[in-house]
Here is the input.
Amino acid sequence: MKPIDEILPTAPVIHVSPSPHLVQTASSTRRMMVDVLIALVPVVAMSLFVFRGYALFQLAVCLGGCLLAELVFVKMRGRPSTLKDGSAIVTGIILAMSLPGTAPWYVGTIAAFVAIGIGKIIFGGMGMNLFNPAMVGRAFVMISFAGALAASGFEDVRSAVDAISQATPMNAYKINGVVTPLTHLFWGTTNGSLGETSALACLLGGLYLVIRRTASWEIPAGLIAAVLVLGGVADLAGPADGWTVLHHILGGSLLFGAFFIATDPVTSPLTPTGKFIFGAGTGMLIMVLRLFSGYPEGVMFAVLFMNALTPLINRWSIPTPFGGK
Amino acid sequence: MNVDDEKNKSAGGLKSSNLVQAWLVLVLAVGFGVSLAGVQLMLGPVIEGNKLNETLEKVPELVLGNLLAAKMAGENQTLEIVPRQVTVEKPGRNKFYSVYEARYQGDLKGWVVKTKGQGYADTIELLLGLSPDLHTITGLFVLDQKETPGLGNKIITDAWRSQFVDAPADRSLVVIKTGASRPGEIDAVTGATISSKSVTAMINTTVGDLRKPLTTGPSSAGKGGKNNG
Amino acid sequence: MADLPTATERFINGILPENPVYRQLLGLCPTLAVTNSLKAAITMAGAVGFVLLCANVITSLIRNLLKPHLRIVVFTLTIATFVTIADRFLAAYLYQMSKTLGPYIPLIIVNCIIICRCEVCASKQSPLVAATDAVGQSLGFGIALSSIAAIREILGTGALLGLRIMPASWPDWVIMVLPPGAFLTFGLLLGTVNWITARRGGKKTA
Here is the structure.
C-alpha cells in the first residue's frame, strides 16, 4: 500500500494522533502537571482560608480517591503505574475545588472513582479521554446526589465557617434576586464550590498558566469574550436588577472553569482557531444555561458539551497546509 | 413450495399479479385483524374501567383521609361518586375541570378535583380533595409528574403531601423555604422550590376557579340530597 | 437443513453463547429504556418472550408458503398482532406496569430480536425448533435485562423489586435510574462479559 498522500497529493491530510502534547516524553507531562499544581496554589490556599476544615477534608477525600482509583484501574489493565505523571493529583485537586465543602465523604469518593475510571481509564488512560475527567466525576455525583450538590447542599446554617452559612451568590440571585457585592466575589469570601469563590486566586493561577504556556490563552480569552458579549446583551435587554456582566464573570465558577477546566489540553482542540472557538462556545453555553435553565450555574455542563464537540472543531479548523488550496 | 406451485398453476395467467402473490399476506391480515378485534372486545371494557378506577379509588382517602377511608373499606361501605364536568370561564378561553362529587348516604362529603399545570420539568397532574364548603383541603395526590428525580419528584411523598391535608382553602397557600409554622404555609421540598411552588400555585388557582361553580350551585347538591333521602 | 442447529443447541445458544443483548447487541431500545427497575425489566422480558414465541411458531408453520420478497411483511404483520395483544393484556391486567412501560411495549414491533429470530430460525426450521429457540432467546434477553435492571435499581434506589436491601444510610445514586445510568451500566456489563469470554478463550463461542 502506498501512503495516502502519494495517491492523492492535493488532498489535505491530517495525521490523527492522540494528544500531541504527550508526544515528547513522560517528563514533559510531569512538567505540565507541576505547572498546573503551582497555578492551583493560590486557589487552594484561598479555599483553605475561606472554608478551613471543609476544604482540607474535601481535598483529602478527592486526592485519596483519585490516587487509589488510578492505582487500582491501571493495575487492572496490566500497565505500569502512572501515578508519577501527576495527572491523578491534578484531577483530584480540581475535583475537590469544584465540589461544595459540605458534600459528604461518599460524594468525593464516588466522584473520584468515576472521574478516573469512567472519565479516563476506560478510554485508554491519560491523553485518550474525550471528556475532562474531573467534570465527568462531578457530573455523575451532581445528578446522583442532587440534594447534596444542588444549591441548598452548599449551605449549612449551623456551620462555624461564615461562608458556609450563607447562600451561594449564584443561588441567592437565581432564587431570591439578591445581588452579592462585586468585592466579595473578587476576594472570594462567599459560599460556593471550594475553588470558585475567589476571582483573584483564579486570575493569579490562570495568568501563571497562560504565561508559562501550559494553558493556551485562546480558550479563556474566547470564553470570557463570549460571556462579556452575551452578558452585555443580557444587561441591556434584561431587568436592571443589579446583576451585571461583571457579576457574571466574577461570580460562580466561571474563572476557575475558564483557566483550569476548559484548558485541559487533552479535551480541547489543537489549533489556536479551534481553541478560540472552543472557548467562545463554552462561554456562550454557560450564559445560556445561567440565563435560561433551572440551574444557577452552567460551567460544568458547558465544558462537557464542548468536549464532545472538540473532534468536530478540530476538523473545521484544520490549517491549510502550505501550498494547499 | 408444493402448495404454492399448485396454486400458481390453477391461477394461470394471474400468476404474476401482485395481488395473487400476496394472498398469504392478505389472509394473515384478515385473520389477525379478526383476532385483534376479538381481543379488543374482550379487554376494552376492562381497560376503560382501569383508567376510571385509577381516579375513583383515590376519592375516599382524599375526601375522608386515610384512616376513615380504610375503616369504610373494612366495613364494606362505599361512597357514591358522581363525576361531572365543570366549565370555568376565563378571559379568552374556557377551562374544564373534572370534579368528582363524593356522597355518603346522600350527604355531600366533599369534592375531588382533577387538575393539571406546568411543573419544573413537565406537566404535573393532581387530584385535590376539598371539603364540601370549600374551606379546607382534605387531601392531595399526584397522578402524574416527571420532576427531577431526587429533588422535585419528592412532591409525591406522603410526608410532603400531608402538609396540604387540613390546610385552609379559603386563602392562598404560600410556599416557605424552611420552617412553615402557620396554617396556609407550605414547606418547599429542599432544593426543589420551583416544583413546590408549581403544585401550590395549581392548587390555589383550582380552588379559586371552582369556588363559585361549586358553592353557588347548591341546587344540584340539594337535589341529590333530596333524591337520596 | 442438516447443518442448522438442533432444538437443544438453539435453546442453549440463546441463553449465553448467542445472547441477544450481550452477544448480538440486539433489542437495545428496551435494554436501555426500561431497566430502571427489575419489575419493569421482567415484565418487558415477559412481553418480548410471549411475542417471540408466538411469532416464531406462526412463522415456522407457514414457512413453506413464504415468498422471499414478501417475508418481511409477513413477519412484521405477525409480530405487530401479538404485540398489540400483549399491550392490551398488560393494560387490562397490569395497568400500572403498562403505564410505566408506556410506549416501549408497542415498540416491541420494531425490536430486532424478534424479526431476527423469524428470519434466522423460524423461517427455516420446524415449529418445535422455533419454539425452543424463542424460549432460549427470551431467557437470554430476560437475563440480560434483569442483570442491568438489578444493578440500576439497587444502586439507584437502594431497593430490589421495591424491597429495601441497602442500609438506610445508603445514598441513592439517582443517576443510575436516569438514562445515563442505563448506558453506563450496559457498557460496563458488556465490557465485563466480553472480558470473561476473552479470558475463557472465547474464540469458539465468538
Remarks:
- DSSP finds eight helices and seven strands in chain B.
- The two ends of chain B are 76 Å apart (CA to CA).
